[in-house]
Amino acid sequence: MKLKLLTTTAACTAVLLAGLATPASAAAPAATPSSVGVDIETKSPAEVLAYWTPERMKRALAAPERLPSVPAGNGKSEQALADRSVADAGHVTASADAVQPTAGAASSTLSTVSAQAAAAADIAVAQDVPASTSIPNVVVGKLFYTEPDGSAGACSASVIVSDTANTVWTAAHCVHLGDGSGDAGWFSNFQFIPGYKDGQEPWGVWVADREYAPTEWLEEGDSEESDMAAVVLSPSDTYGNIQDNIGALGYQFGSVTDYDEAFTVGYPGEGYNRTDMDGEQMMYCFGNTEDASSLNPLDDRLKMDCDMGKGASGGPMFIGALSSNPQIVGANSHYESDATTDERLDDDLFSSTHDANAVAVINAVNDSA
Asked: What is the mean pLDDT of the chain?
C-alpha cells in the first residue's frame, strides 16, 4: 500500500465558517527556528501578477498538484516514531481563536446563521460550498504556484490567524518538493485567490512574500509528520492585509486526533469514485476526525471520511465552526493507494500530524512579524 499526496448537505455548510472572533497584529521577517525552513520571494507582487497570464492559469487548473508516492502501511513503524521525542509529540501545543474581518463593508456581511441549522449527518461525499464567494467561506481559496521545473500547479489553502495578518496555511507539498534539494526545491510565483470560483476573484488576489515549511519535509518529504506549511502574503495595494478584509481561521495544534463536528474544505480536481470534480468549485465534507492508526500510539495523523482528491491538498481540516470559533487542526495531505495498481483504496482523507512541526511553523511566522 502507498500513500498518495493530494496536491492539485447544504444546511450543514450554511454555518461552515460562521462566526469568526478578534484580530492579531502585523509586520516583516526575523529569525526562524532551526526546525523550519524559509524561502523569500524575489519577484515583486506586480511581477507575479503579470506572470499569471490566462494561459498559465489554465495550465495550473489542469494540473491541480503533484501526486508523489511514499511507502505506507499503518503509518510509520513503531521504532521510527519512537525515535522522535515523545515529549515533543504530546506536549508541544499552540492555539489561537479565529478572527472576523475588521474592514468596514466586509465585516457587515459576516454570516449569522445559527448553529442549530447544521445537519446532524456526516457528509463524506463532498458537496459544493454554498456562497463560497461570500464571507466567511472566502477564508478558503486557491493557491497557484510554479514548480522548480517551470510547471504550473494549484492547491488549496486557508487564511490563518497570525501576527502578520497576511498568512495562509496549506500543505508542505504545495510549497516544496520535499526531496532534500534544499533551496532548489522551493516553488515560486505563489498567488492566493480567496473564495475562487469558476475563474472569479471575488476578493482580489494576494501574492506571496515568503514561505515556511518544516525542515523535516524539506529533507525527507515526510507526509505523516511534516506536510504543513505557511505562506506569508504581501499586503494588497488595493485591500491591504487579507486578515483584516476577510477574517481568518484560528488554530489548535497538538497531539489530539479525535474531534467531533469537523469540516474539511478544498478545491478537488478529482475524487474517490467521482467524475464530477474540476477544481473550480470549493467543496467540503463534514464529520469526525479520528486517529489514523489506533494500533500505533505515536502516529497522530488525523483521518476523515471524505472523497476529495488532488487539488484539495492544503485545504483546512477545522473544528469549532458550529460554535462560531473555527480552528484549523490539520491540512489535507494524502490518501492511501494500492502499491500495485496505484488505485485509491477508499474515501479516507488524511492530515499530517499537527503537533511540534505545525507549532514551529506558526511560531516562525509570528516571530517574523
From this structure: 84
